[in-house]
């Protein structure tokens, strides 16, 4: 019998992950570790393939015949991992397992947060500028970006938990209704109900003696009596709206699966990825349709797929969580595109670069106001109603004379028209903040910000990049003198430092974040982490600008 097991490269116990998965104790699979997948007892082991989060693992030399070995490192994320074992002539075998986050490290939840905040920042920047573009649900023939689908998949996991909480204690209302009963079954009918029933229908006369009816009825009784009652009903406006939303999301995922299925043959080199998402979208569609059939939504009437913030959504915790998920789902299905959104979870570090840029643009609008904000080069609309986030070099004036540049390229300085560039090779820092020459700063300001999705010792390895930018970007004046143009250079990272009173006593990488170190050397690092509030991001940008424009003295 073929068995696939997982064990740490450093040694220790092994856990069977297929076909009968064993629970892995928490903390045994760390995102910073290295592990072996080992397949034993399979005659097709020589041709077997193993994919983790849609990426094929490189096979190693097997320890014995009928076995296969793969090395795997979780990389920079944690959470639920989806794997697929492919054996020749057999259907793919899929399974999931969970990795644990390293201390102070970004996880799968942070990936979702970054996608949500990229989309939120896009909408916020639309409203702050002259763009004023309405972004509706994605439709047409253009498939949504992978990052959006990853985001939606995680939201649906949460959606199932929320609906389960609602089903345990759904909100109800008492509704009045009238039923018609034969006189012999209406023993609990009231006097007014009997009198109203005389107005229609046949009247019967009592033949027995003595009479069992009240004297006022004179031996007469309606053959059928209209009895009113109150019934507990799930037909609330909130349930109608929630059911409509669920059906709408399921239909959207079904349409996406059809679009991806049609384009599988057109995706050169990415057919496998597209086919995987066709399957996933159809599974998600079935999961949401199953939720829509739950009693509160099935018994409710029809409505538009739009939630109104009623007292139920405000006061009931489960319904309030559904409302928050509805907002997330609207972000996920919005027609926002971009190469940087077209990333799988394993390439979160690239998404982090775009997240940092959009967060800082929005923070600059808060600091300097939206009057001078110009995002015409950042977003491009199309005839189908979609909006594309530019992935190439973009410059956004943000006010106060400052401009934020995303992946701006600096060629050799003698080629550049303004004489500002590199003296070695073409360089493209992730983010550059520039303040044009003015009376207050005749030389201008140029701050290099390099986004690094790293923590701890990984940040030490990233220092060479900002050293390079600081030294290699120069300008040539009218007399031919060459001098540096970088005012300050900082890393942007999710690391949370442990600071001591003096930077000299603070070990790396915490020293890079020390305020005295940053101000004195105009060099170092700033924490930017998913989930930070807009005020915190604005404070970080203000700190960068204050440090970079402070005095030249080094403490």
TrEMBL record:
<dbReference type="Pfam" id="PF09823">
    <property type="entry name" value="DUF2357"/>
</dbReference>
<dbReference type="InterPro" id="IPR007505">
    <property type="entry name" value="PDDEXK_7"/>
</dbReference>
<protein>
    <submittedName>
        <fullName>DUF2357 domain-containing protein</fullName>
    </submittedName>
</protein>
<feature type="domain" description="DUF2357">
    <location>
        <begin position="77"/>
        <end position="326"/>
    </location>
</feature>
<dbReference type="InterPro" id="IPR018633">
    <property type="entry name" value="DUF2357"/>
</dbReference>
<dbReference type="Pfam" id="PF04411">
    <property type="entry name" value="PDDEXK_7"/>
</dbReference>
